[in-house]
Amino acid sequence: MNKTVLVLALVLTSISSYADAPRKSAWNPTNATNYALKYALNPNSNYVVFANDCTNFVSQIMRAGGWKDTATKQSTQDSSWYYTSKTSYAQTWSTAHGLRNRLNHGYELGAEKLSRSFGGVGGVYLNNKIAKGDVIFADWDGDGRYDHAMSVVDKSYFDTTVAYHSINVVNGSMVNISANHSSASFEAFHIS
Fold it and tell me: Kind and range of the H or E element at 137?
């Protein structure tokens, strides 16, 4: 093998290895929130609708907010996030646990995991940094596997409201959701 071919092979291998390295997508929380409010009750017909559609909906919101598909299309890898058609999408696009792992493992820069509020006593959804367009994950039964994803559409000192699918909801109260699911744990990610 000549040196030129070897160098080219190494460069291509290097590029493909880092094509989906941690990246920083543009972020517009207003566009994300407007999308969430528009399609919370009536899903966008340009996308597949799953029986458990929460993460598909949150991914659409993130795309509307500026996130771009990853270059590599490996449907089962946490490093890939994409939707190309109703039959071709990443598990990070369509499953709460997959998207949570993508954010938690730093594949997308600008996604900051928030801590509990009020000195560690209050819910993460009341953290003073949480904002419109942020993502909240729920582990309903405390088994460590996140089952549900929601997008923040408003925040006050006393509550955070979210939009989500599976049961289509707009302006759902996180205080009420938390009270109604006492065994659940929540994780919130601030997107910037």
Answer: strand 135-139
